[in-house]
Structures are given as structure tokens and as C-alpha cells.
Amino acid sequence: MPTMNAKYISIFVTTDCDLGCSYCYAQQGRDDNVIDVEFAKVAIDDFFSKYPHRGIRFQGGGEPTLRLNAMRDILDYSRNKWGEVNVELQTHGAFDKETLKWIKDNVNIVWVSHDGLPDVQNIHRPDMQGGKTNLIVESNIKRLIESGITVGIRCCITTLNVDRQVEIVDYLSSLGVKTIYGDNIFSTDANEYMNHLYSVPSWQDYTEGFIKAKKRAKKIGVFYGSWLTVNFHSETTHNCSSCIPYPRLTTDGYVSSCDVTSLGKDGPDIFIYGKWNSNTKQINYNKKQSVILNSRSLENLDRCKHCSIGPYCAGSCAGKVYLKTGSLFTMDHETCKATKKLAHYLPLGMGKEEHEIEHP
Ligand code: SF4
Ligand code: SF4
After folding, report:
1. pLDDT of residue 360
2. Which residue is closest in CA terms to ligand 2's atom 5?
3. Which of 78, 246, 288, 311 has the smallest count of CB within 10 Å of its CB?
4. Which residue range or ranges hold the Radical SAM core domain (predicted)?
């Protein structure tokens, strides 16, 4: 999930996936839809015409590398028309050699989902038959790093690994990883049955484990971050790019501003501000909705505007706050307490730490 400085258009490439992660928020929408490449081309032209950024991020819903042809077509078009583009990919990391080669040739930053320790990875993120995935994912992480690609790890924190965050930093560091985001999972209607082996950790356990891991990471030259700390390095008016809004294209033809709305038909609708028209080959943008999204700024958040760390949080993640409270213009109490606790221990406004890349 990006901060406001993440300057790219995002594309939910497909709803298809070949892993069976039990906490996956997209699991109820799982099928084999693929992004309409014509839609993506028009949206890229719109975005690149409006902003100077030349960045494309491929992500889930499902697993983008299952549809290399769609990504290939989109990048060929973008590079021919707009020149060099910075490419970011979010992947489960369980791909074959051909895919590995394509990534090496085409992608600048790869975010691999790995839950920090082999035993946890294999419980959280098995394949469809329940088989282990740690070996192939860890092998691909090492191959990517060896080839000079910037690799960050997205690590989901549950009750299984919440007390093992120091161990996670050490283990991933031993694979050559320099950037890790350890994010506590939260329950939604889509994933709340999860797995009997684990559940959502308390914010107290999460922040305690995070602070210890942060210290360890600093000591060994690794960046360890959280979705709660993404704005700690400098002041902001908006929590993330969803409230600019920047586009995320869904496989069912909508322009969403937030990762939590990866399918227009499933919503939440509040983050939808455009719709592809395949007859006219145009995107109809909803300007009124863009204005509403953009107005989620610190000055319009009554519960946050006088907060002492307000400029380093700006109301926290709009998507999660909306899912938990049903409103964009409020805050979630537990998230707020966790953010304040981390802000008490971590320096604010100190500039970026070495190795940091923006939260995916
Ligand atoms: S508001 Fe949406 S896009 Fe932004 S950090 Fe939250 S989930 Fe991610
Ligand atoms: S820490 Fe809490 S009150 Fe302060 S800006 Fe964040 S959500 Fe709002």
C-alpha cells in the first residue's frame, strides 16, 4: 500500500491465483478475469498526460505473473509511446524460470509476499493443494537479488509470527533482503474465517514485536517498516495516493483509488472514480468522486487535525478505516493507538532511512 509519494498507475492484472493463502482479502472474487489491455492503454495515456510520473505497478487481486502476456503488451505500448517506465511488481514469488527471466528483464522493483519464516510461510501461504511454498519463493528472492533487482518483502503478521518479528528480520536478512514491511493483518468480511491455526494479532502485541524488530533491523542494516509508519519520515496532508486519487485499474473495468477495491462489482464503491466504456474506448471519470476522495486530508478529519502526530499519519489508511468504520472521514481507534505507540518510539520527520523504498 503506497504513501502519497508513490507515483504510478496501478493495474490489477488478473483475479486468478495459484496459491491458497487463507487470509487473502481477494479470495471471494477469485476467477480468471484479466485486465482489458485496451482499457489499460487508455488509462496510462490519461495518467501520463496528466502527471509527469512514468511508473506502472502490477499487482493483485490475483497473481500478476500468471498473465505475463497482458503485462508484456501493456509495457510494449507504454515504452513505445512514452519512453522508459519504472515498473513495480507485487508477486507471491512462486514462479518458474521463464517468469523469473521476464521479471529480470522488465521490472525495477519487486515486492515478494513472504511471511518471514519457512514454517509460517507454509501455513499462511500454501499452494492450492496445501503444499509448501517456502523453497521456491526463497530461491526466487535470492535469484532476483543476485541479478541486481530491488526486492522488498511484504510480510503479513498474524498471531503465528507476531512474537517472532526479530527472527523474521534475521531470517530474511540471511537471504540478502534489505527492505521488509511487516504488516499486521486485519479482519474483513472476505477473510475472517481464515485458518484455525492463527488469527488477527492484538495491536499491542504487534507494536511490541515491531519495535523490537525495528531495533534489530537497524543494527544489521535492514529497513523494517509498517503500514502505520509510512509517513513518519516527512509531513503529509493525505495518508496515501488513494486520496489524490491515483488510479488502480480493475479487471472488471473500473478505476479505483484504493487497494481494498480491487473489483468494481464488489466495492467498496466509495473508492471508484472511473469506468471504462469499451464502445467509445474512453474512461468516464467521476469528478465529483475524485473531489470527495481528495478531500480526505488532515484538515478535514475532525478527530485528527489537532493530533500531535497528525502530519505524520493523516488519518491512517483510508481503505482500512473505511472497512472498519464505514466512513472515510473518521479514524479507527485501535489503528490510532498503534500508530501513536510507534510514533513514541520512532523518530518523526527525520528523512528516509537507508534502504527504504515506498510501501507497496
Ligand atoms: S488507502 Fe487503500 S491504497 Fe492507501 S494505504 Fe490504505 S489500502 Fe492501501
Ligand atoms: S494518530 Fe490517530 S488521531 Fe492522529 S492522525 Fe493518526 S489516526 Fe488521526
Report:
1. 67
2. 310
3. 288
4. 12-161
- Angle between helix axes 134-146 and 97-106 (nearest 10 degrees) is 30
> Lowest mean pLDDT: which of 139-153, 195-209, 302-316?
195-209
Q: How much is the pLDDT for 24? A: 76
Given this model, what pLDDT does residue 25 score?
64
Q: Whose CA is nearest to atom 3 of ligand 1?
A: 258
- C-alpha span between 186 and 226 (Å, rounded): 13
**Is 337's C-beta closer than 6 angstroms to any atom of ligand 2?**
no
- Read off the pLDDT of residues 234-284 as tens digits, 9 standing for 90 and up: 899 999 999 999 999 999 999 999 999 999 998 999 999 999 999 999 999
CB-CB contact of 272 with 264 (8 Å): yes
The pLDDT of residue 353: 63
Q: Say how many Å lie between the CA of residue 298 and the centre of ligand 1.
A: 16
- Length of the chain equals 360
Pocket of ligand 1 (CB under 6 A): 1, 240, 242, 258-260, 317-320
What number of other Cβ atoms are within 10 A of residue 22's Cβ? 17
Mean pLDDT of 150-179: 97
Query: 119 phi and psi, to 5 degrees?
Result: -65, -35
CB neighbour list of residue 43: distance below 8 Å, 6 or more residues apart: 9, 247, 249, 255, 274, 276, 283
Domains of the chain: 9-225 (3.20.20.70), 297-352 (no CATH)
Ligand 2 pocket member 309 (CB < 6 A): yes
Query: What is the distance between the alpha carbons of residues 346 and 318, in angstroms, rounded to a whole number?
Result: 22
Q: Which ligand is the nearest neighbour of the Cα of 257? A: 1
